[in-house]
Amino acid sequence: MNEAETRAELIDPKLKANSWGVLEGSKILRERNVCKITDGRIQVGGGRKKPLIADYILVYKGIKLAVVEAKSDELEVGEGVAQAKLYAQKLNLDYTYSTNGKEIYQICMKTGEEKLVNDFLTPDELWNETYSDQNDWRDKFSSIPFEDKSGTWQPRYYQEIAVKNTLEAVAKNKDRILLTLATGTGKTAIAFQIAWKLFQTRWNLNRDGKRRPRILFLADRNILADQAFNSFSAFPDDAMIRIKPKEIKKKGEVPTNGSIFFTIFQSFMTENSKNETEEKVTEQLIAAEPNPEYEESKFNFGQYPKDFFDFIIIDECHRGGANDEGNWRGILDYFSPAVQLGLTATPKRKDNVDTYRYFGEPVYIYSLKEGINDGFLTPFKVKRIKTTLDDYIYTSDDNIIEGEIEEGKLYTEPDFNRIIEIKEREAKRVKIFMDEINQNEKAIVFCTTQDHAAAVRDLVNQYKKSKDPNYCVRVTANDGEIGEQFLREFQDNEKTIPTILTTSQKLSTGVDARNIRNIILMRPVNQIIEFKQIVGRGTRLFEGKEFFTIYDFVDAYQRFSDPEWDGEPVEPVPPKICETCHQSPCICVKEPKKCKVCGESPCVCEVEPPTECEICGQLPCICKKKVKVKLSNGKELEIEHMTQTSFWSAGGKPISAQDFL
Predict the structure, then answer these.
(1) In this structure, are residues 481 and 246 in contact, taking their beta carbons and an 8 Å threshold?
(2) CATH number belonging to domain 136-366
(3) Which of 26, 44, 284, 381 has CA atoms 20 to 30 A from the CA of 540?
């Protein structure tokens, strides 16, 4: 018999005889669409590699427990073993089977035991083998189906595992949980499904099911909180609350009548209405600043009881939330009774170890490499561009417009647009990438500063073919609401204007714009975490998008050769135990720090008033710190460039053009 006949005549009856599809709560998934595990890597030139599709997936009580790989009865049972192991590994399952209808080969992925068996394990037997303990909340969580948005959404396999593992940790009363998934893999969708199941089961800190949970989604940028708010739209309108400082000030108190709350850390750190202080949000890559001494009651978050929230989701938690010196940490400590879930796109590295120390090891990891190879993220190529003015030494035929030049100094990439500015150099770079790209495709240009982003915006608009005045716009902290509006329009895949955004730090994370085809790097990228996040701006899928291109003026491509690009996480660091309370993290009540001079907290020392600048005589100083140079006409005309295109595997290794195709 062929495989289809073997399945119908031999395998299906054996599964049924072992209660699969018969016992209440048990299901056999057979259809191609529900058994498809991956989509297959996107191929340049169209099409995809072959996806991974299991023959059978065995489900009980809403949880996938095993896969069965079927082969024709004319083949040996061992022919399906490799596939069976691969599928089980992908789906994070303990058991898997290979069968030709005549024999059944059972594999335990957890213990490594393999053997021929007479029958498949029954649903109850397989459940007991997988879960040694009885847990009512596990059963309740698994009984709630995923919210599929009226059949328009199905979880990808890794999203399902992330939700399951998180809720398993909740069921086991773990209070700090971490998920590590690459940018563009749908962390917000995962957070929504977790919140949905908690809400529907009426889980709360009392674990009595008597009331709905109060869940807080905490981000560090308004656009991220707004995106999450929109993604949670399946919840009843009266259950969702968007916390904003202006509303708090207007009403004189924080909102409490809801179930799902959304806000940013800066809103919570805004002083409450009694202090008459407006919110001020500054743009920064890392949200952790030196921790000011404060009384919780002064700030908005302090108006809530410490045990008000049952569950807190911290988006992009690596950006300082768990850092002992960060403002974020003060909020997390205040709401310490809540179960806290951290979401991050970055594996454990030396520059984010505090995050992992606070939350513990991730309950699930899904990497950029896996996302590209599975076909859930877009592959990319790199164009490295070098010019004859990548560095600069002053000569007397150049004109110093402003500032003081340091003669004989070699100005290199980190100096440009910070301490020295040469407009002709930037104009040449803009002209190069404008000639290289398809000007109808969306792009983000990463610049050194907000001023640099404004200059590049103007240069792009001077070289553009489009007649639209908003073809290229700047989106930085200084652009305020108009910048946010430009960003929303850029994210709208139905709109073509604006086409190019320039930015400095703001768009390196969290911007869900799926149709970005080009990323232009005009500033150095010093941290591997930031580099991966910037690359993540282009990895999201979009119809007809076979790859995206990174235009690299600053040798950031060297980061691709970094062993940390997508390697395994570093070895777990043993948690640091406090010598006083013997807990990790420390739960000691910390006394406010006293001033070393006056011995008081807060400090009452007299501070000398600032004095006028000795040069310009102004307060504050208005002296120009940046050197501005205009090249002699001959040099401007002599600027040359060379472009080298290279291709990279999902694992960060250089490959040939043929392999890329």
Answers:
(1) no
(2) 3.40.50.300
(3) 284
